[in-house]
Amino acid sequence: AEMAAAARLTGTENRLVSLPLSRIRVIMKSSPEVSSINQDALFLTAKATELFVQYLATYSYKHGRGKEKNALTYTDLSHTAEECETFQFLADILPKKILASKYLKMLEKEKRDGEVREDDDEAEEEEDEDEA
């Protein structure tokens, strides 16, 4: 049965997927729980991944600011990850872009807050108001 599935994949089904199946297999095998991969499972994972990326891109384009430029931007994707509940699991992978200087200030503030007053929310809120 697996041989027949492999033969099918080399034919028309393989053209139904744009992602390289060999790379998908490598990624799937990188999981310690995975010992062998059925060809149908490989194909379905590749197709599902393609459909997900297509949905993410379409949603981000429709709800993003890049529409004016007829372009899908990183900002559109990160906005989707931040604002849309369906895509919030991607927030760590698609963080909002910030300037390095702003990030360094945030790190410094976290360091100061951690040393001086741990878990004192009121003091942090007052500092935020002072900066604004």
Automatic annotation (TrEMBL):
Enumerate composition-biased segments (Acidic residues).
Answer: 116-132
Q: Does the keyword Acetylation belong to this entry? A: yes
What Pfam family does this protein match (any one)? CBFD_NFYB_HMF
Q: Could you tell me the Gene Ontology terms of the biological process aspect for this record?
A: chromatin remodeling; DNA-templated DNA replication
Residues in domain Transcription factor CBF/NF-Y/archaeal histone? Answer: 18-79
CC per GO annotation: CHRAC
Would the keyword Iron-sulfur turn up in this protein's UniProt record?
no
* A Gene Ontology molecular function term of the record: nucleotidyltransferase activity
Localization, per the record, is: Nucleus
**Keywords annotated in UniProt:** Acetylation, Coiled coil, DNA-binding, Nucleotidyltransferase, Nucleus, Phosphoprotein, Transferase
Region ranges (Disordered): 110-132
* InterPro entries assigned: CBFA_NFYB_domain (IPR003958), Histone-fold (IPR009072), Transcr_DNA_Rep_Reg (IPR050568)
- What function does this protein fulfil? Forms a complex with DNA polymerase epsilon subunit POLE3 and binds naked DNA, which is then incorporated into chromatin, aided by the nucleosome remodeling activity of ISWI/SNF2H and ACF1. Does not enhance nucleosome sliding activity of the ACF-5 ISWI chromatin remodeling complex.
Assembly, in brief, is: Heterodimer with POLE3; binds to DNA. Component of the CHRAC ISWI chromatin remodeling complex at least composed of SMARCA5/SNF2H, BAZ1A/ACF1, CHRAC1 and POLE3; the complex preferentially binds DNA through the CHRAC1-POLE3 heterodimer and possesses ATP-dependent nucleosome-remodeling activity. Within the complex, the heterodimer with POLE3 interacts with SMARCA5/SNF2H; the interaction is direct and enhances nucleosome sliding activity by the SMARCA5/SNF2H and BAZ1A/ACF1 interaction. Within the complex, the heterodimer with POLE3 interacts with BAZ1A/ACF1; the interactions are direct.
Task: Please identify the protein, giving its name as recorded.
Answer: Chromatin accessibility complex protein 1
In which organism is this protein found?
Agelaius phoeniceus
